[in-house]
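Exam revision sheet. Question 4 asks you to relate a sequence to its structure. Input first:
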Amino acid sequence: MNRISLKEMKFFGYTGCLPEEKEKGQYFFVSIDMLCKEIPGAVTDDLNATINYAEVYEIAKNIVENNKFDLIEHLAYQIGRSVISKYKLADQVKVLVRKPDAPIDGEFEAMETEITVSNKEVVIGFGGNMGDREETIKEAFRAIDGDSDIEIVKVSSLYETEPVGYEDQADFLNGCALLRTYLEPLELLHRLQKIENDLHRVRTIKNGPRTMDLDVLLIKGVKMDTEELTVPHPRMYERAFVLVPLKELGLYYGPIPDDKAVKLYGKINFN
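Answer key, structure tokens:
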């Protein structure tokens, strides 16, 4: 992994939980490490093919000097989010914030925190069986592509699939896609749910007809189980309409159940 770093940048800011910290302010020292799998500019000597550290400096300066957060942890996180959003080259951004004048009665050099913000690979499943199925899928991916916080890496072919669970409905068009994002899992889920809602997704019958379904299946390095989201998806390995497109994308190599017909519909042109 390649690294670009800015060390011990000194800014005057107003982050702190006490009123006097927000009124009087104090100095903060910020260090940023940006880890990248590739930096094309290292080979080409092209200024546009690397990370502009002058811009990174201004990002950090603006956030420290123009915000009044309670926690330096949140300050570091906001800097990391802003940097990784600006530079798609960065796979990971580590932000160290030091607070040498923390209002604590005692001897110390500084209070500090280090926060890491990472781009993660995410696998989603998609599908629908109402209206113009192919056009609705295109609309969904136009919306995903229009979100600057999400990168579409690759999308499978479309597969026509018999319904599962509730069978009195039309066949689905299904597929899977590999995305890249620094969004937290629930943030991503809520973005995808908004797209579903914008495409008139209605949840009335369990496993029933729908215009668009966008499911978070896998997030690299993440396991979670909440009321809103379980990752990995608990039923993905039972569903041929998920495993077949995953296999096409090179993301699955295990057995595929054949209890439901899944047939190739064709590649989709998103233009």
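Marking note for examiners. The CA atoms of residues 130 and 211 lie 5 Å apart.
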